[in-house]
Amino acid sequence: MTEDDPTRVPRAKNGRAPDVLRVGGWVPMRCFADDEQVDFVIVGTGAGGGTLSCKLSEYGFSVVALDVGPYWRPLEDFASDEHEQYKLYWTDERISGGEDALELGRNNSGQSVGGSMVHFAMVSLRFRPEWFKSRSLLGYGVDWPVDWREMWGYYREVEENLCLAGPIKYPWGPPRPRYPYRPHELNAAAKVLARGCEKLGIKWCSTPIATLSAPRGLAHPCVYRGFCIAGCSTNAKQSAINTWLPRALKAGAEIRDLAMVGRVELDANGRVRGVHYHREGQWRFQRARNVVVAGYAIETPRLLLNSACPQAPDGLANSSGLVGKYLMAHCNQGVYGVFDDEIRWYKAPPSLSLTEHWNYTDEGKDFDGGYAYMSQGPLPVEWSGTQTGNHKLWGESLLRDMERYNHYAGLKIVGECQAMETNTVRLADEKDRFGLPIANVTFAHSDNDKKLIAHAKNFMRTALEAAGGYDIWAEETETAHLMGTCRMGDDPRSSVVNPDGRTWDVPNLWICDGSLFPTSGGVNPSLTIQAMACRIADRIKALAARAEV
Amino acid sequence: MRTRARPADRLRALQDALAGNARSPALLRSEPPVGAQESADVARLLNAGCAILASSVLADSSMEHYRGSFENKAMFVPPIVSTLALIASLHGASDRSARAERRRDAIYALSAAAAAAGFGFHLYNVGKRDGGFCWENFFYAAPIGAPWALLLSGTLGVAAERVRDTRPGGIPHIFGMAAGRLLAGLTSAGLLGTVGEVWLLHFRGAFQDPFMYLPVTLPPVGAGLLASAALSSKPKKRPLTRFWMKLVTVLGLAGMGFHIYGVHRNMGGWRNWSQNVLNGPPIPAPPSFTGLGLAGLAALRLLEGPKNE
Fold first, then answer.
1. Do A194 and B265 touch (CB under 8 A)?
2. How many domains does one find in chain B?
3. For the whole model, what pTM was predicted?
4. Mapping DSSP to helix (H, G, I), strand (E, B) and coil, where does residue A522 land?
5. What is the phi/psi pair of residue A231, to 5°?
6. Distance of residue B266 Cα from the nearest chain A Cα, in angstroms
7. Which of A285, A163, A177, A166 is nearest to A217 (CA)?
């Protein structure tokens, strides 16, 4: 083990943090003492925490952001090796159960500074405006306590920060400004989607995606290496680690890697005092005026539940009893087919084209909600997992079908999942390496989810056939992004946080990540998480100006 | 008594001229006559411009069509034709005689025809892709503006031969039209077409570097100045237009420098030259402006009259 092993020895300390854009590089970092009361301690540095760290430090607050993951330099730490890159996932022990138990790790978690965005698929879509009021306007789910027009502005801010490459004109929803960078050239897999849509007479477009189509500072344009969800080693991928966090450091935030927060401490007045965290072999305590939990849909409720104390015996911010409830997981079924032409779907980002037709069309559906579907590009190891799992191939038949790898193309949904109170994150008796009770996750699809999946599989099968595919088969079980578990709302009885991301129970405890989502929408959540973080930062700034923070 | 031609008349005359009608006495009369040496010098300047355009096409089409694996046999045409055009142009640039040369003429005509066909091929390539004539395909399919440079090289080459053929003391003309005006108009249109292609590709690159705006802002000004010279009634000195043509000439060379720098901004930089030269901004493309700048200067020499005047 070398001394510079970011999984063992923290890199961000002694006044410097890794410069993610240079091999072996460093940038200066302001450091705070544990007993110094900082304005904000932020737990997690991904789409929610990373974005908020940047915004709050730029607004002049003192910020310490803690992440249990290592601080990678993608240029030197990421390999073109799927197995090696499993190091980006949260693979610590967890219990997963329920009728449709979730497979945790690969596509729904991350353990890195920068969070799961380090291996996100870069698909950056806005919510359909109506989804923010899905109960009132569409008759299902619950309303968000925010207005879509307000979110529209924050979406723009995030799109600019990520320098999204997107189509000149987006075919769905209200007008939006032009994406900062132009769309990428479509790979053959994306053209299959396009051909299917053209044949079926529905709209499609190149995917708004967070990988550069032109240079940006020290970051190179995408070289279409195809290892996006195994971690981008070229920095073409624009995510928290190489956009929000460098800005945060510049604005004076401290980022502590390999720092696991085990407990948020409440004082006698019911306000948080700070966090207990584990770093370099010992438990420490960081004092803070405010604590923001941004650990995503499993770790956020886990931390709140693990922070139970005499003043809050059921866990922090849990007077509603809803912490850890209404867990949602996007439906993520794929349909695959073989083509005569060589597709070589591993080249370029996996999802370069998409259609949101079934997100924006309400007729012809026997279910609530919607779905987008996108072109696919699984790498060989991931693909063999799909083949042995969902396709149930083994031995000779697996070998034969793997030989057709270069001729496969596929379509995959991000489908809206209905929130159910019975889908939960609770604490198990078992403990992790820090001695903290691990998460026990229970998940089952609703009947509506099942109808949506059936509709999507049927439609995508038709689309693949229309595009010239044969030997078509569909995945049974597959889920992606997690959401819910600390839902946002207008009413303390039916939500955990208020519209500002502030917990109803504890005035200086905030939540800023995907666990806020009251509904899931039919699009990848990262853009909305970041937009919400920008909004929460603005709310905090406004409240602070009135001395209400 | 002859009155000064009104702009509308001049425009009509130019239109007639462009339509191939030789009925444009006002236009012909307004250009100064030139000596044999002068017409040969102007032709040689034009040949030099053509040489630069042809070498830009040779390098660019060879690289890009190599990248496309010469999948269609027709993709060999532009490198071959531009090589011929380059040879013809170098030959012309070093030829001091005041007589047109038939083989050069034929080669220039051939390259213009090949370019027109190339435009058709490229347009077909854009349209046949999924999505048809959409932005993505204009960005990434065969660049429809690329054959433009070869077309200009051929057309300006043919023009050079006509200018060279001017009878001593006569007014240079091309198919019955005043050569200076026609060349100024042609170069002006050539600049605008080239700007169109640059805009499309720099827009694709999101104008990520502010210098990417230069080739879509400076040349249009030059095109405007040249067009106004083409439409003007009197031979006179045009220092601003001359300056601007020199600027455009230099811009083409500077663009090459910027593109060399641009290649380095791709993953692996110049160490990975074998991929990045193909993938980065095309190094041979910007000198098209240099070729057109020289053509503009040649047109000005005809419009302004001999140097010693």
1. no
2. 1
3. 0.93
4. coil
5. 105, 125
6. 5
7. A163
